[in-house]
Protein 1
Amino acid sequence: MEDVSGIRKAAILLISLGAETSAEILRLLPESYIQKVSYEIANIDYVNPTEREEILNEFLEMSQARQYVIDGGVDYAREILNRALGAQRAKEVIDLLNQIQLRERPFNIARKADPMQLKNLLLSEQPQTVALVLCYMQPDKAAQILAQFPLELQTEIAERIGTITSTSPAVIEKIEKVIENKFSSYVENDTETVGGVHALVEILNSVGRSTEKNIIQVLEERQPELADEVKANLFTFEDIIALHASDVQKVLRHVDNDDLMLALKGVSDEIRNFVFQNMSSRAVETIKEDMQFMGPARLSAVEEAQQKIVAIIRTLDESGEIYIRRGDQDAIIS
C-alpha cells in the first residue's frame, strides 16, 4: 500500500462502503476533497479484492490507533497495537499516524499555498526561516520552491535544512504566525486566477455522470448560487439539444454507433428524436433496429457512453469546429 496515494485509498474505501454511506461521508468533506476523491472514484474501473481488504484493514487500524493515542498517549497506543498487530505492524501504524498528525500541525497554510506565491513571500525571509518552513512542507513542493532561489541561497538554505535537529515550539509558533500574516496580506495584494467556476466545470465535465450529479446536489445544498453558475456553464449530454444542427452532424461523424445506441437509451424522446433528425434515414433505421435487440443496459454503461460523446463535443468546441453556448454568452449570428 506504500505506493497507493491517499486520495486513491479514500476513493477505494468509499467504494467499499457503498453509495449511501459514501454520500454521507462526502457531504462532510471540504469541497476540494470532494472533487479530488470524486474524480478518483470516477476513474476506478476495478478494485482488486486484496487491495480493498488491505485498505479497509489500514483504515480500521488507523482509526483504532488514533483513538488509543487520544485515550492514553503514544506509548499506550504502541503497547496496545504491539499486542494486537505485532511489533513491526504496530510501528508502521504509529509512524503513519505521526506523519498525518505532523501534516496537521505547523505551517499548514504553507503546504496549501501556491508554490510561486509562497516563493515570492519567502524571498524576503532569512535562510534559517525559509529552511524551517520547507522542513514542514511536502518534499516535492519544497524542492520546487527551493529551485526558484538564487544558487547561493539554495546552498545556504539546504545547509540549514540539513543541520536543523530541533526547534522550540514557541519559536515555530511565532514564525508560523508571521508567515500566515504576511501570506494573507500578500494574497490580498497579489493574486492570480486559480480554481473558481471554470476550473470546477472543467473537472465535472471529465467525471462520470453519477459523480457529477452528486457533486451538483451537494453544491445546491451548500452554495445554491455557485451551483446555479456551475450548471449554467456545465455541458451535459442532454445539452446536445442546444447545439446547432450542423454542429450535431459534425459530432455524430466522430461517434461510434455502439456508444450512440447506449447513450440514447438514457434520454427522453425529445432528445432522441433531435439526434435522429440530424442523421440520415438509413442510419436512423439501423440504430433503431439495433436498439430494439440490444436489451437492457447498465446505468453506468449508459453514462460512460454519454460521457464519451460529451468529450468529443468538448474537443470539437475547443478546436473551433463547433460552438457551445455557455451561460449568458451571446449566440453566434451567421
Protein 2
Amino acid sequence: MIRIGTSGWRYPEWRDDFYRGVPQRLWLSHLAQHVRTIEINSSFYHPQPASNYRKWVAETPPDFVFAVKGPKQITHVQRLRHVEDPLKTFADSLALGTKQGPILWQLPPSLRFDRATIQDFLAALPQGRHALEPRHESFRTDAYFDLLRAHNVAHVVSDAPTFPCIEAVTADFAYLRLHGHDELYISSYDDEQLDEWAGKIRGWDRDTYVYFDNTMHGAAPHNALALAQRLDTPIRSHM
C-alpha cells in the first residue's frame, strides 16, 4: 500500500493553478479527489478541536487517510521531555476514526540525538503509527535506528537542501517527505528525481506514506500525481 499526497492543502499560491475555479471551502475535497492522503499541518501550530477533525473526515473520500503533525509544544518547546500530559491531550483531541494515519513528529534542527530522551519519548507515545523526522546529523547513528525499530516507529526520510537526508527504514511502514531538493519548500522534482524516488520506494517493499512539501510555488500536487503514476498507485479516490 503506497499513499502519496501533499503536506497541507491551504495554499493561496495554488489558487490560479491546481485550485483554478474551485472555491476555497472546497479545496480539501478537491485535492482529496486526486491524492490518497494529506498531512494535517495546523495541528503543529495550534491545538485543533475534535470538530475540525470530524469536518475534514466528512470532506474526504471513504478510503482517504490523514497523517497528523504532532504539536510543536511537544517537539520544539518541551523538546520531547516530560510530555506525557500534552501527549494525552493531543491524542484525545483526534477524531479521525478510520481515516487516521501516522502521527508525524518533526524535530527542530537544533535538537541533537540523546538516547535517553528519545527512548523515553518513544515509550510514552500512544498506540498507533508514529514517524520521527530529525533534522540534525547526530541522528545518523545505529543507536537511534535501533530505538525506532524496537518501538516500530518510522524514521522519516526527508529530502531538503538545508538538513540531512538520512535514508533508513525502521518500521513495518515507511514515511517520506519531499521538501524540495534544491530550494526548500519551492523547487519542483524533475523526471529523473521522481524516477529515483520511485525506485527507492519500490525497494522498501512495505506500506509507504509520501508527502510533497514543496508547496510554495504549487509544485506539490503535480509532483504527487506524477510520482503516483510511476508507482501505478491510484491517483484518484471516489466519494
Protein 3
Amino acid sequence: MYVLYTILASLGFFFVLKWMKKRKYCTDLKRLDGKTVLITGGNSGVGKDTAVSMAMRGARVIIACRDLDKAEKAVREIKFKSHSLNVFHMELDLANLRSVREFCKNFVQKEKRLDILINNAAMPGVLDCTDDNFSMCFGVNHLGHFLLTNLLLPQLKECAPSRVVTLTCSSYKYQKLDFQDLNYNLLPFFTYCRSKLANIYFSQELARITQGKGVTSYAVHPGFVQSGWTCHYSVLFRMLMQVIMWMFFVSSEIGAQTVIYCAVSDEAAKHSGGYFVDCRPATLRPFARDAGVAKKLWEASERLVKLV
C-alpha cells in the first residue's frame, strides 16, 4: 500500500508541475513577407526561438549579438529550423554605448526596412559594470536598448505600422526605482528587478511618444524560461538551478509565444503600451503604471546615454 501511495503522490506531483508549466501558444498565422525583424540576443533561448518563428513567416531576420561565433552558429540553426535563408547576424554589444551607436549607423546604411524590433537580450543580476560604468543590469537591460530603440526610431516610423517588443519580467514588482541611484548595483536580484521595471516604464513612454505615428510598443513577460543565464554564476548554483528550471520553468519555445504574439497579432496592436503575459494583456501593479515616473525615467535615460 505504501508503494501505491508513493506512486500516486509522484504522479500527482508531476501532473501539478505539468499544469504549472502549461502556457498558451500564439495561434496567429500572419505572414511577414517583405518585413524586417531585428532581435537582440537572438543567438539563444527565447530570442532564437522567436527568430525561427519570424523566419518561418517569411521575414528577413537579423539577430544582433556580441559573440559572433555564437551568432554564426545560431544563424545556421535558425535557417535549418525555419527552412529560410533570409537570416543574418550583426555585431552588437549592449554593454557598450559606442557599440550601440556603431551598430545603428551600420544597420540604417545596410537595411532598407525595420518593421519589428524585439529588445530581447538581458543580463541576470550580476555585480559587473558596463564599459560606460553603469551597472550591468541597468546598462544592458535598459540603457542599451533605450539608445538602440531611439536611434532606430526614425526607421521604424518610416516603415509604419511597426512594432517594438521589449522583454521584461514579473519580478519588476519587488522593487521601485530610486532616481537618486538609478545605477543601483548592491544586491544583484534587486538590481535585476529594477532593470525589468525600467523596461516596463520604457515601453509605456515609447507608446505615448509614438502615439499616432504608426509605432506600437509592448512589454512582455515570457514566463520563467529554461535558459543559459546561470552561466554567470558558480558551478554549484548552476547545478541547483538546472534542477529547479527542469521542474518549474518553461522551455524557450513556450517562452517565445507571447513575444511572437505581440510581434504579429492584430489584437495585440490595440494595446500599445501594454504588459503581456501568456499571449494576453495582464495587469501591472499600480506603481508600475505611473506615467509621470515613466516620463521622468525617459528624460533621465536621455541624459545618461547623451541623447540630449
